[in-house]
Design a protein that fits this description.
Layout lengths: L6 H10 L1 H21 L4 E9 L19 H15 L2 H11 L1 H4 L1 H5 L7 H12 E5 L5 E8 L5 H20 L4 H29 L4 H42 L3 E2 L9 H20 L8 H27 L3 E2 L1 H43 L1 H36 L5 E5 L12 H25 L7 H8 L16 H9 L1
Antiparallel strand pairs: 1-3, 1-6, 2-3, 4-5
Length: 493
């Protein structure tokens, strides 16, 4: 019959079947007591480690601006360290370092039928080992349980020592030997690139390409300005020279002296006689026949007088000297100066033109070799950057190697392993309380299940609950033997 859910109904049911309740309750309690009696005691040692980040983790030779880690990145790093602490290899190394016969002598004496004793020891150690990480911190809590309270802190200490060495190998593997070879190779390549670049510079007389081109262009600009000024001065002097030449062709070099005095008397007399004859001829033309003897004689006299004038003039010109022309001499002096200016201005033009041509030739050479020069410089810079990077890495590797030798790592021991003074497993009080509460619950459940399978009514409440009818009267269960009073009366009769 179903038991009612009211508390006193359950209590009545328990009282009704108290034997079953006590059997289940005492059985559960006996199991707990047996567990406490025969279970292996385990002692716990706890240590704490802190994981540092950024410039506090490990020194470096050259450090770029530190990148700020996000909380998720920090937690991943701390969880990675915790995973190293709880790794199979680290547990195996710890057992091998201490000795399996000292850590788990029972496994050493009685090896398992399947697998090796080391595998069984490692599995047990990992079961008893816990590496816990908080939600918002970088603290790792390491705890280990072991039957030997003197051995457990030693195991934790050895585990931490091996962990420091292991995590330095994982996070700070220096590869110093490999980097040393790479640095030497990079140095040889850098020396060859530098030698090739220097030879090219010496061949084409290049010190600094861009600076030299800049200087050459600046010089060419200055020379071009000077050349334009020199050409302008030359053109001006040439134009002045041509103007003086034109004037010199128009101005006579010498001027004749004036005809005066005794020196020119014969010529004057001849010219006077010729003039008189011409005047007489003009007078006679009107009265005489032009072909007459008188006119013919007069014409002959005029012709004779003209010849006389010519002869005397020619003789006078031969005998007289011409005086120098001062204007011509001034023009000649200016012409000589202009010629000198032309020659003086032509020479700077030629020199400046030659210098500009030389600069243009040099610029052409530089332009033609720009690609080769840039390629050599780029190769040299790449080799230099590679050498510098490898040198810094090699220096960092040496530092990290020294850190590993000194056992310095980002993870530091915050709290040394504790020395246990009492067993943490099994927990006597908690186990007894659990057995009492669990036994009571199991016993109650067993009683209710037994009552649920019984179809008889034991209380008036069950009748009301199932039939929904009022109970008028109930008859309690009578004992099988009669009351003592009846027995006494029967004996008296």
């Amino acid at each position: 019959m179903y038991a009612t859910a009211i508390p006193y109904g359950v209590l009545i049911t328990i009282c009704k079947r108290w034997r079953l309740f006590m059997a289940v309750f005492l059985g559960t309690l006996l199991l707990g007591v047996g567990y406490l009696t025969f279970a292996t005691k385990k002692y716990e040692s706890v240590a704490e480690l802190v994981v540092t980040f950024g410039r506090w983790s490990a020194p470096e030779v050259e450090r770029s601006p530190a990148q700020e880690l996000t909380p998720s990145d920090r937690r991943e790093i701390v969880l990675a360290h915790a995973a190293i602490l709880h790794s199979h290899d680290l547990a195996r190394a710890t057992i091998e370092a201490v000795g399996i016969d000292k850590v788990y002598p029972d496994i050493a004496e009685n090896p398992p039928s399947r697998g090796t004793p080391m595998d069984a020891a490692v599995s047990r150690l990992l079961e008893d080992l816990a590496a816990e990480v908080g939600n918002q911190d970088n603290i790792i809590t390491l705890s280990l349980r072991h039957p030997d309270k003197e051995m457990v802190p030693k195991l934790v200490r050895k585990l931490i020592d091996l962990y420091v060495g292991r995590q330095t190998q994982i996070y700070h593997n220096p590869h110093e030997g490999f980097l040393a070879g790479e640095v030497r190779q990079a140095g040889d390549q850098l020396a060859r690139a530098q030698s090739t670049l220097e030879q090219f510079k010496d061949q084409w007389r290049i010190s600094s390409f861009d600076r030299e081109v800049e200087d050459l262009l600046s010089q060419r600009g200055d020379l071009d300005t000077s050349l334009h000024a020199a050409r302008a001065a030359l053109a001006q002097s040439q134009e002045r020279k041509r103007g003086l030449e034109e004037l010199m062709r128009k101005v006579p070099e010498k001027l004749p002296e004036n005809a005066s005095g005794e020196k020119y008397r014969a010529l004057d007399e001849a010219q006077s006689k010729l003039l008189e004859l011409k005047m007489k001829q003009s007078q006679m033309v009107a009265t005489y026949n032009p072909d007459g003897p008188a006119m013919t004689a007069l014409k002959a006299g005029i012709a004779t007088a003209e010849r006389e004038v010519k002869v005397r003039r020619a003789d006078l010109e031969k005998r007289s000297a011409n005086a120098p022309n001062s204007v011509y001499q001034t023009l000649q002096t200016d012409y000589l100066r202009a010629s000198a200016d032309v020659e003086g201005n032509a020479q700077p033009v030629a020199i400046l033109s030659g210098q500009i041509a030389a600069l243009d030739q040099r610029l052409l050479e530089l332009r033609q070799n720009r690609g080769t020069f840039d390629g050599l410089v780029r190769e040299y810079q790449i080799k230099e950057e590679a050498y510098r990077s490898l040198s810094v890495q090699h220096a960092n590797a040496r530092v990290k190697g020294n850190l590993n030798d000194e056992r310095i790592s980002p993870a530091a021991v915050l709290s040394e392993p504790t020395q246990p003074y009492r067993a943490v497993r099994p927990r006597s009080l908690a186990t007894l309380l659990a057995c009492l509460i669990g036994g009571a619950l199991l016993a109650t459940i067993a009683v209710l299940l037994r009552e649920a399978r019984d179809d008889r009514f034991t209380t008036a409440e069950q009748v009301v609950y199932l039939l929904d009818l009022p109970v008028l009267a109930s008859f309690e269960r009578q004992p099988h033997r009669p009351p003592l009073q009846l027995l006494a009366y029967g004996d008296a009769e």
